[in-house]
Every structure is written in C-alpha cells, then in structure tokens.
Amino acid sequence: MPRKTLTALIVAVFSGAIGASAHTNQNGLDPRNFDDSTSACVDFFQHADGGWLASNPIPAEYSQWSLDDELRERNLALLRDVLDAAAKNPGETGGITQKIGDFYASALDENAIEAAGYTPIKPDLERVAALKKPADVAALIRAWQHEGRSPLFDLGAESDMKDPNTVIAYATQGGLGLPDRDYYLRDDAKSKALLAQYRAHVARMLKLVDAANADEQAGWIVDLETQLAKASLDRVALREPLNNYHMVSMREADTATPHFPWSAMFKELGRGDVTRFSLSQPKFFAAADKALTTVPVAHWQAYLRWHLVDGAAPALSKAFVDESFDFRGRTLRGMKELKPRWKRAIDATNGALGFAVGEVYVQRTFPPEAKQRAIALVKNLEVALRARLEKLDWMSAETKKSAYAKLETLTPKIGYPDKWRDYSALTIHRDSYFGNVRAATVFEANRQIAKIGKPLDRTEWGMLPQTVNAYYNPLQNEIVFPAAQLQPPYFDAKADDAINYGGIGAVIGHEMLHGFDDEGSQFDAQGNLRDWWTAADRKNFDARTDKLVQQFNAYVPIDDLHINGKLTLGENIADFGGLEVAWDAFKLTAQGKGDEKIENLTPGQRFFLSFAQSWRTQQRPEALRLQVQSNEHAPAKYRVNGPVSNLPQFAASFECKAGQPMARPASDRVDIW
Predict the structure, then answer these.
(1) Are 486 and 504 a contacting pair, CB within 8 Å?
(2) DSSP 234
C-alpha cells in the first residue's frame, strides 16, 4: 500500500471527468462534436459535446473516456519510447537511465514475475503468522510503517497548518479496503450486495496465498474494517481542515492510544527526536487502539494478511493481478479489460521514479517559451481576479485587504520543478520487479520521514510533470500546472484567445479560486490556518455558497443518487468562480472586446464552447455511481451546466430566454466571487 500524504486530504485537485477530442480542427473546435438538435440553452453539455458522445465509445480498459485520457494515451506512447530506449541502453550503473530502464524492464518481465508467484511476500506472511498478542500486532504495524506501508492508518510529512514553514508528521485515519467509509455503513440493497462482493473478493485473494479458512477470515476482515469505518470521519468532514489537525505531544499521544505507543514508532522510524505531531482524527485512533485488545489476534492476523496481499497484488503474478482487477476494475468501475502490461509498467515506473522520467518528458514536450506563455496567461487571470475582488459589494474593506494579500503572494508553478528529485539513494536491479517496487516504497518512506521537523522546501512538487492534472496547495498558497496539462487542446499557441481562455484559462482560474473556496479560504496568504475574515463577511460567504450546495444537491446523475452538494462544494466554487475569472480575463483581450465571428460563432460562444468541450466525458454506470458516492468532483455534465446556468454572460452569448434551464432567473442564481 502506498504511503499517503496529508496533501491528498486537504489539497483541492482539478481532475477527473474531462472529455476526449476525436474531432479538433486548427481552430480548436469542430462542429462534428456538437449536437445541434439540443439547444445550448436547454442542456449546454449535450449541445457542446453530444456529437462527440455519440461517436466515442469507451475503450475496454477504461471506466471512462475523456480528453485527459486521450492526453494520457499520447503521453504513454511517448514515455514508452523513452523507457524502451532506457531499458535497451541503461548506461552507467546508478545513473538515472539505468534506474528507469531496469525498473521498467523488470516490470515487463512476465516470466520472472510469474515464476516468483507470491514468494516475494512469504517472509511478510510469516511475520503475520508469528503474531501472538496485541503488542505483537502493534509492533508489526510500526515496522510496516517504517517500510512505507500503511496498515490501519496513514503517516505522512506536510507543512504545519499553524506554522507552514515547518514540516510535521500527520497520522490520519485509514485501514479500509473499500474506497469510502460509507460503503460499509449504507444499508440499501446495492451497497449490501457490493459489500458481499468485496467479502468474496477478499476470500479469493487469501486463497491465492493458501490461507486456511479464507472465507471465515474474510468475514473477520470486513467486520474489523466496519468497526474502523464507524469511527472514521466521512468525506465531507475531512474537507474541514481542523478535522485533519490535532497537535499532541508524544506523551499525550501515548496516553491517547496506550496499546500503540507512538514514541516507540517514531524511534523505530529513526526519529526519536520528534516531540509532537498531528494525531489527526482522535476518535478513529481511540477506536483502533481499543480494537487492538478487543478484537482477537487471529482476526488482526487476517486483516494484516489481507492488506499485505492487496497492496502487493499489482507486483505479483497474474492470478493476483487478475483477481484484483476483477473487483477494483470490473466490479467497482465497470472496466472490461485490464490495461496491457506495458501501460501498467509505465505507471509503476512513474510511481517509483516519476521525476526522473519527467525530466526526459519535459525535454521533449515543453520548451522554455511554452512556460513563459503559460506564466503570462496566469498573470492575466490574476489581474482579472483582483478586479473581481475589488468590485465585491458583500465583502468589507478589511477582509478584502487580506484577500488581496493572498492573491499577491500566490505562487504559480508551471511545467516542471526548478530542482529535480535526487534518486541516488534508491538502488534498482533488473532481476526483481517486486524487489524494485519494495525498494522504491522504502525510499519514499525514508524521504518523507527525513522531512519531519525540517524547514519547508517550497521548490518541491506534489505532482509529476507528465501528469494531466493540476492542483492548489493551501499550505503553500501555490497553484501547480504540470507540463502535460499545458498541451493542446487545453493550451495551444495557434488557437484564438477564446479557445485558450475557455480551455486552460478556466483551469487556471479554477485553481486560483481554490484559494478562496470554502476550504482554501480558511488559510491566509502565508498558508496559515487562520481566520482572516470578519464575522459578517464569513456569514455572507456561507449564505452564498449554501445556495450552490442546494443547486447541486438537486442533480441526480444516476439511479436515485443525488450529488452531495456539500462534498463537492469546493470544486463547484472553483469551477464557477474560475470560469468567471477566465471570462473577465478573456474580455481584456482584443478578441474578447470585439464581436468578430469565427466559423459563424461569436467570441463569447467560442469561449463557452471551448470550456464545455474540455469536459467531454463518457462514463460507465459503475464509475459514475462510484464518483457520485465518494468523489469531491461532480460528474462532468454538471460541472458544465451548473456554472453556465448561473452566468448571465452565457445566457447573453447564446440568447437564452427566461425560463430556459441554462438561464436561471436572477433570484435563483449563485453569486459568490
């Protein structure tokens, strides 16, 4: 199991359901993607993307198909060339080329992987079998944390929310095999059936390692995970920063969980000097500590055995890979086929040595002039956001002053890091894929552990340059745009401004607005978790955002499942506000100020169509259901129709009439930023 960081919990990420571009001409739009039978004012997502939806079935190995997926496919082809070359000519031992080449080659060596079976994890299975008492269980959990595995809870290093220039350790709730706590707690028929399928999957995986009474053990595991789920915060609660921050001294931590001494764990990590850390969800850790003595050791053995096998499965033989895919890919997400090994090998190499691979990637795809053009675009959106803040009639001058400071200190990271990661301490051999995965896991664990107590390295990136994604980090007040996100059709120097501002401009605006969403707005210009609002301004903000919550609560994407407006609020604020800021920035350009048509489309129409077409998405029902139940991002259709229905600029661009779905009356419109 990979170690998670707190960033995964508190950093809002622009990601997920974006659509693929089968038809794109030199101007960035293609009428074949449209559905002219549907009015833009009735369903803009369908109007902009319906032609594409009708002609782009989802590939068998995907749970959805999207522009992001198409860009990832392009990246995979390029990275395959890079890694094939490195595998054939690894060069000097210990060099980056040798490491990425040998790791990739080992991941492709199916014969060796198949011959090994589950032999690589037999020593760990023996460690589990040797457990006799609760103290032994706690000791093994500590040992596995040192090795970069995260049974029961996650441990990571991140900025102190109250002192962001210093890195501290965060222990956060975890230990579940299903995507979300609610999968264990819902009592509807579909949820009960899925839990039964999960239990059967656990039993089948345990049988692959010759576990006795595997069916009975699977029941113990589900029961224990259900106990942990009941003590876990739900995803809405986890979006509240203070629910991820609970500083304790080492003595207080040991007292809180007497059967799991944290002082012993940090000593085992080689960090006996750590005196305080965040025991982030006290209720969860109290319940886990109690379970160490109330749950039989045999049940804990089953639980640890299962999480060992589940985490190791992708690096083991075909039987493990297939069984894992059958549940996590086919059952949970509706995928029809497993990705071919070469794609999985690239993903694994990125996971282990991603910044080394990224260094080669940017040399091929992202010249310095592209970085400068992207920085200029960011600056234009900053100007537009500043102007929008100045015009707010519901925010006081006092709060605006702090908002300006936050915008002025916002740091954009574009394309790739200024300083590349040092992998010299990671040794890679060609003869063992599992050994390489384990070595990379330990390397990353040690890298994280070493950061605790040190000054924050603000040059570090939390995302690879070859990742099609972007993020905002409230602890560092930074927006990060990897090179892969800044590729056509999102960002195309040959396209007109309407296309770029509706595409990448809306993405940049989205990330900026995360600094001012319901979560990011709790952090100040320096990244401190500090209330910089007047009470009246916060009350006004909450009233306005609650209106957005209610709008999204009303959407029903599949079956009888409503979008959770509170869970998706941060993303919805960023989508809506980001689109407004991108529009304002576009209106500062020559094209935005004019009315010249291109391909019989006005500048405003081209802007909004570019925005909508960046969200073209096909999803399998299983994947859509999973997203609605557990993801902070609303499905793509509603990330288009939701924002535009609140914008009078959209209604004016398409001459929508009062009463049409995409033209909400003024009394119903959301107006935040």
Answers:
(1) yes
(2) -
Q: How far apart are CA 579 and CA 511, in angstroms?
A: 11
Q: Output the CATH code of domain 119-333.
A: 1.10.1380.10
Which one, of 293, 311, 332, lies nearest residue 191 by Cα? 332
Beta strands in 140-246 (DSSP E): 153-160, 163-173
pLDDT in tens, 556-601: 999 999 999 999 999 999 999 999 999 999 999 999 999 999 999 9
Q: Are 23 and 56 in contact (CB under 8 A)?
A: no
**Sign of the CA dihedral running 309, 310, 313, 318:** positive
Tokens representing 237 are: 């609660």
Give the pLDDT confidence of 269-295 residue by residue, as tens digits: 999 999 999 999 999 999 999 999 999
pLDDT at residue 506, as a whole number = 97
The pLDDT score that the predictor gives to residue 321 is 98
* pTM metric for this prediction: 0.93
Which residues contact residue 359 at a Cβ distance below 8 angstroms, ignoring those fewer than 6 apart? 96, 416, 420, 465
| Alpha carbons within 13 A on the beta-carbon side of 443 | 17
Q: Domain segments of the chain: what residues?
A: 119-333
Strands of the sheet containing 13-14, edge to edge, are 13-14, 470-473, 478-482, 411-415
Q: Classify 255 as helix, strand or coil.
A: helix
Look at the alpha carbons of 50, 486, 101, 106 in this order and tell me if their dihedral is positive or negative. Answer: negative
**d(C-alpha 289, C-alpha 260), whole Å:** 7
Q: What share of the chain is helix, strand, coil (3-state, %, to 5)?
A: 55, 10, 35
Cα–Cα distance measured from residue 394 to residue 539, given in angstroms and rounded to the nearest whole number: 10
What the block records as the tokens of 123 is 């020593």
Question: What would the two tokens of residue 473 be?
Answer: 């980090």
Q: How far is CA 263 from CA 267, 268, 271, 329, 474, in A?
A: 6, 9, 9, 39, 30
User: At a CB cut-off of 8 Å and minimum separation 6, what does 212 contact?
Assistant: none
Residues comprising the chain, all counted: 673
Q: Which two tokens stand for residue 516?
A: 């001012």
User: Are the beta carbons of 125 and 149 closer than 8 angstroms?
Assistant: no
Amino acid at 318: K
Cα separation of 476 and 528, whole Å?
Answer: 9
Distance CA 607, CA 562 (A): 29
Backbone torsions φ then ψ of 4, nearest 5 degrees: -95, 155
Report the Cα–Cα distance between both ends of the chain, in Å, rounded: 40
Distance CA 43, CA 46 (A): 6
- Helix intervals (H) in 392-416: 397-408
Q: What is the token pair recorded at 210?
A: 């010759």
| pLDDT at position 20 | 33
> What's the per-residue H, E or C state across 350-382?
HHHHHHHHHHHHHHHHCCHHHHHHHHHHHHHHH
Tokens 């100007």 -> residue: 383
**What value, to the nearest 5°, has the Cα angle with vertex 92 and ends 88 and 95?**
95
